[in-house]
Description:
Elements: H1 3-17, H2 21-32, H3 34-37, H4 47-51, H5 55-64, H6 68-71, H7 76-86, E1 115-116, H8 131-134, H9 138-142, E2 144-151, E3 163-165, E4 168-171, E5 177-182, E6 188-193, E7 203-207, E8 210-216, E9 221-226, E10 232-237, E11 244-245, E12 251-253, E13 256-263, H10 265-268, E14 282-287, E15 293-298, E16 304-308, E17 314-317, E18 328-330, E19 335-339, E20 354-359, E21 365-370, E22 399-402, E23 408-413, E24 418-423, E25 429-435, E26 450-451, E27 455-459, E28 465-467, E29 477-479, E30 487-491, E31 497-501, E32 523-525, E33 528-532, E34 537-542, E35 548-553, E36 557-558, E37 566-567, E38 577-579, E39 582-587, E40 599-605
Antiparallel strand pairs: 1-3, 2-40, 3-4, 4-5, 5-6, 7-8, 8-9, 9-10, 11-13, 12-13, 13-14, 14-15, 16-17, 18-19, 19-20, 20-21, 22-23, 23-24, 24-25, 26-27, 27-30, 28-29, 30-31, 32-33, 33-34, 34-35, 36-37, 38-39, 39-40
The structure holds heme C (HEC).
Amino acid sequence: MNAVATVTFLLATVWTSIPAAAQTGAEIYQQRCAACHEEGSDRIPPRAALEEMPSARILRALNAGIMMAVALTMDPEDRVAVSSYLGTSDPVAGPSAQAFCADRTVTLPATPQASWVGWSPTRDGSRFQPADQADLSVDQVRRLTLKWAFGFEGDSSAFAPPTVVDGQMFVGSAGGVVHAMRADSGCLQWTFQADGPVRSSIVVVPAGQQHALLFGDMTGRFYAVTAETGVLRWSVQVDAHDSTRLTAGPLAHDGIVYVPVSSWEETRAADLDYPCCTFRGSVVALRISDGEQLWQTWMTDAPQARGRNARGTMRHGPSGVGVWSTPTLDEARNLLYIGTGDNYTEPATDTSDAVIALDRTTGRIVWSRQLTENDIYNGSCATNPEGCGPDFDFGQAPILSRAPDGRELLLIGQKSGIVWALDPTKEGEVVWETRVGVGGINGGVQWGMATEGQRVFATVSDVGRSRNTDPGDPRRVVLDPNVGGGLTALRIADGGREWYFPAAHCAAGRPLGCSPSQPGAVTTIPGVVFTTSVDGYLRAHSTTDGTLLWSFDTMRDFETVNGVAAHGGSIDGPGAVVVGGMVFISSGYLRNGGVTGNVLLAFSAE
Ligand code: HEC
């Protein structure tokens, strides 16, 4: 179903089952929206502006756009009711004719010359792009200039990394639109509408005479779409829990795709009427040819009722242990390595905040190495911190690397601010550990590190928050413009610090939500390490001493090749993608108090 069809279907359901939907919509608007949208602040679109928008667009803002955080605790039916109450019945405009390539043929070579497919171009998770694939020298990095900008219509975040095969690009979006486009010009070939936001990296595999794109969305649905045409082959809901999110990109190997499963249920526990928590993380293996499930390995036992909370709502556990990142493949041992998140409720399990090795064929847990014990955290901890935390998830899988002396190592960074090296031959025994940041709930090393085989590069979030002194902005707390960030290079051999590059504070006049924090994933090519920041900058450093080689400020308006008004904002989540002499970055991150944006940028050397 495309977006308009989904909306029409949902509207029809609401109208037939709840005849007083308009009334309900008005009530919901009063309860959930009026306080802000009738406040008279020039930063908030007034009610009149919402009334000029198509309902489908408002619904998109609630489900996948700018109002996602507001709508987090709203039922799907209530979102539909308030959207149809407020908006018009006009359809949402798709891409304009100007956005499309003159020739819309998508061809993928049998043996690609230069590609970046999925979360890391190599399936060891290193985010290292070798010289022949990167096709970009240190000198050329110094001369990178913007080649084109593409705007995601109606979106307020741009958090999906592109996948590129010999100049053919595929990229998801916060609006749930997957785009096939040319990497050299940014023109469109086709679009595919998923149910929810697509922030996962996309994998491309041969499928018969054609190719299949494999990716998940933020509602728990996983898709196989024909790369050449954009036509759906199959889709499956990998987990029935209504908080499921497929944040991580999949890993495909030998006809099987491995899908990590996470959720936002942890946040819902802020509402004491919510029966927290019943989600449990897992990895699901699907047959690529037809989507048939081969195995699903849960990270905890099934939750049971565990007594009532202060408001008398039943609590459940064990729960949590979401898997937020793409698994790393160890082909020689037939294993997948994952990093896991915290428990949401008691009892604590020994699988949370752990590195876990799964048998690729059966999904069996071969070994598990817990690095923080007893980490139970959920949304109610903000008001009642007793027995909570420290919320030290792994937002990344370990990199399977080799020390210069030939020893294999698993390298992983944690929200605690610690980088770990584990021994894959000894069930993950700790070889060394080095602190690179302060750590915290939104601190430490988050989305991923990178290594070129000598050093491992880690940036930290370590975000700060301060009281908002801007009377025109409804937020009480905003990101501190002077706290967070930092890039460290550690020697793989012993974890010793080789160099450190501190983050720059946000300059005066930057928008609220600017922060020097650097939660985004790091990328490396020979001689260069690319970092991103919530301050909107993409930066390139020398791998040998951290010297800044080049930087680009994405926090501004852009003229786009598809004619959509676009601006950049905070960069968080995926890092830079470097392939075939070009560098790609998406900019704009509404979550965690960052600056919104809806742009995908492409750079090449003059
Ligand atoms: C806490 C304050 C707040 C609440 C509550 C709130 N909004 Fe908003 N809304 C905003 C702000 C601020 C913006 C503009 C954000 C921006 O442009 O960066 C906005 C933007 C929007 C937009 C996008 C308008 C555009 O120009 O694209 C829509 C649609 C919207 N809100 C709908 C709603 C609905 C429906 C509700 C109730 C369910 C709601 N909002 C509740 C503050 C709020």
